[in-house]
Amino acid sequence: MSGDISAKDSPTNGVFPPICEPEASMSFGEPLHVSVTRGTSRFESIQRSLSKQSSMVDEETTAGGAFDLMTWLTGRQQQQGPPFSTRVGLAFDGLSVFGDNVRDRHIATLATPFWKLIKAARNGFGVTEMFKKTPEEHRLLLNKMSGVVEAGEMLLVLGRPGSGCSTLLRVLGNRRKTYRQIDGNVSYGGLTPDEVDKRYRSQVAYCAEEDYHYASLTVRQTLDFAIQCKMPSSSVLEDRAGYKADFLDALLDMYGLTGCADTIVGNSEIRGVSGGERKRVSIAEQMAAGASVDIWDGSTRGLDSSTALDYVRSLRITTDVLHKSTIASIYQASDDIYKLFDKVMVIDNGRQLYFGPSNEAVAYFEALGVQKPLRQTSSDFLTGITQLNERRVAPGFEDRVPRSAEDFERVWQASAQRTLVTQQVAEFESQVQNDKRSTIIREFVDRTKMGAGSSSLRKRSRYSTTFLYQTAQLLQREMRVLWGSRVEHLLVIFTYAVFAALMALTFLRISDDSSGVRVKGALLFMVLSFVALTEESGVASAMTNRRVLAKHKRLAFFHPAALSMVQSAIEIVLTIIK
Question: Which residue pairs, CB below 8 angstroms and at least 24 apart, start in 73-79?
Fold first, then answer.
C-alpha cells in the first residue's frame, strides 16, 4: 500500500517526518517510478547554499551574520521552506457561477448581427441587465460552494462528468472570463482574483487534461527553459548556474525522469516519452514555475493505474516540499490514490454534497443511509452517491435517505460539517490578516523579480525576468526547436534548390527577344507562388504551438511580444536562406 500522507504529516520547520508505512514499489504488477520519501529527501539537498549575504541587518539575520534567504522569503522562522517558495493557501465561500444558457442559441447567419442589434436595443443596450440579479439567459453552474485548502494540503474534487468539477477548478484557477457571472469570495492568501491576474498570475496555475509541450524538445530542455524563465534576481541568488543545475537534477530525480531526460517529449504524432512520463514533465514544469496554488483538471485521463499513482505521488511531493495548495479532479481513483489526499469535495449537478477530510467522507454518507460495498473504491462510492441504480441503501433508511443532488445539498447545508467549514473559512481569513500573508507574498514576488530594485515598473510587472532576458532565453529555445526539426527544414531547402535549378534551366531555354517576355513573366509568377504557398505550411505548426504559448502566458514565463520578435527574426533568416 502506498504511504498515507495527511495534513498532520505535512512538513513543519523545514523537517519532513518519516513515513511510517513503507511505500509500495509495485502497483497492479507494474513498477512505480516515483517515491514520495526519496523525492522529499532529494529536494531538501538544494535548500542549503545558493543564498547570498544581505546588506540589510534585521531581526531575520542569522546569528552568524549571513542572510538566510529562506527565512526572509517566508517571513517567519517556522515557515522555512525550499528556495523561492511561499505559503499562500486558498479559501472560497459562497461561490456561485453562472454561464450562458445555450438552449435558445442558433447557428449564425448573415442576419445574426442585425438580430443582435435589435435584441440589444430591446434590452436597453445592457442597462436593464444591471437591475437583474440573475438574468434569464444565465444558467446556474455552481451553487454556493465553500472550502479551504491550506498550504501543504491536497484536495480531491469528485463528481460525475458534467457535474461542475471542471467549472469549479477553472474558477479556482482564476480563469473567469468564460463565465457570465461569478458571486462569492475567493482568497489566495489574502490576494483577490483581480490582483492575482494583474500582478501575481504565476502564483496560481491551472493545468487542463491535455499536456502541451514542444514535441521536438527533450525533457531536460523543457525543464531547463522553465527554470530559466523563473530565474530569481541576482540580489537574492549568488550562483545562477549552480541553482539551475541543482534544481534541474532534483526535478529529474524526484519525478523519475532521469532515464528519459534526453528523450524528446513528443506528442500524438511524434514518438517521445510515454504518457505517464509526459504527465510528470508537466508537474515538474509547473513546479519550476513556482506557483503556490496548483489546479489539475482530470489529468489522469488515459493513464493506467500504476502510472496514475506515480502521477499523484508526484503531486504529493510537490505539495509537501513547496507547501503548495493542490486541487485535482480524478476519475475512478484507486484507494491508494485516494489516501494521498488530505481533503475531498463531492459535487453533483453543480451542488456541493460534502467537503472535509478524505478519511471521513465515507462515514458521512453512510450516516445518511447509503452503504459502501466492500469491494468498491471510496472514489467510486462518492461519485455515484446520487445514482439510484448504483448506490445501496441501508435497511431502515429507505424513506429517509436523500435521493437527488438538491436533497443532499440541503442535508449538507444543515450539517455540523458545513458549520465547521464555515468556521475554517473565517479562521483562514483571520489568520491571513493577522500574519499579513498577502504582504509577505507581495514582498516575496517583488524581491525575486529581476531589476525590481532599480525600477518601480518592474515591480508592477507579472513577469519574473526582464524583457531582454526573456528574449535571450526564447532565442535559445527556438534554436533548439529548429534543431529538433532540422530534417524537415533541410528537406524544404533541398526542395527549393531543386525547384530553383529547374527554373534556371527553363530560363536558359527561353529566348531573350520580345517573344519570351510572356513566358518569363509566367515563370516569375510561378516562382513567387511556389514560395508563398510553401511558407503557408508554417501556419499548421504555429496553430499547434498556440496552446503551449497560452500555457506559458498563464504561468507568466515570458511576454508574448518577446516570442513574436524572436520567431519573426528566425523566419526572416530562414526565408532569406530558402
Answer: 73/444, 73/447, 73/448, 74/440, 74/444, 75/435, 75/436, 75/440, 75/443, 75/444, 76/435, 77/13, 78/12, 78/13, 79/323
Residue with cell 511531493: 317
DSSP alpha helices (H): ranges in 178-304? 193-198, 219-229, 240-254, 275-289
What SS3 class is residue 182? strand
- Separation between Cα atoms, residue 220 and residue 468, nearest integer Å: 23
Residue 297 · residue 308 · CB < 8 Å = no
The pTM score is 0.73
Helices (H) and strands (E) in the chain, counts: 22, 13
Please state, in angstroms and rounded to a whole number, the distance separating the CA atoms of residues 307 and 355.
Answer: 27
Tens digit of pLDDT for each residue in 435-473?
787 777 777 777 777 765 555 556 677 788 888 889 999
pLDDT given at position 156: 93
Q: Is 190 left (phi over 0), alpha (psi -120 to 50) or beta?
A: left
Average pLDDT over residues 482-497: 84
The distance in angstroms from the start CA to the end CA of the chain is: 59
- DSSP class of residue 237? B
pLDDT recorded at residue 449: 73
Instruction: Report the candidate in 35, 52, 51 with the shortest Cα–Cα distance to residue 43.
Output: 35
Average pLDDT over residues 157-183: 89
What distance lies between CA 92 and its chain's CA centroid? 19
CB 260 within 8 A of CB 277: yes
Whether the per-residue pLDDT at 154 is higher than 90: the answer is: yes
CA 227 to chain centre: 15
Q: How far apart are CA 330 and CA 257, in angstroms?
A: 23
Query: How many CB atoms sit inside 10 A of residue 364's CB?
Result: 19
- What span, in angstroms and rounded, lies between the C-alpha atoms of 315 and 153? 11
Whether the per-residue pLDDT at 119 is higher than 90: the answer is no
Report d(CA 422, CA 388) in Å as an integer.
Answer: 30
Which residue, 246, 329, 316, 332, is CA-closest to 34?
Answer: 316
How do strand 370-371 and strand 392-393 relate by DSSP bridges?
antiparallel
Q: Render pLDDT for 352-408 as a digit per residue (tens, 0 to 9).
A: 999 999 999 999 999 988 888 888 889 889 988 888 787 888 888 888 888 888 999
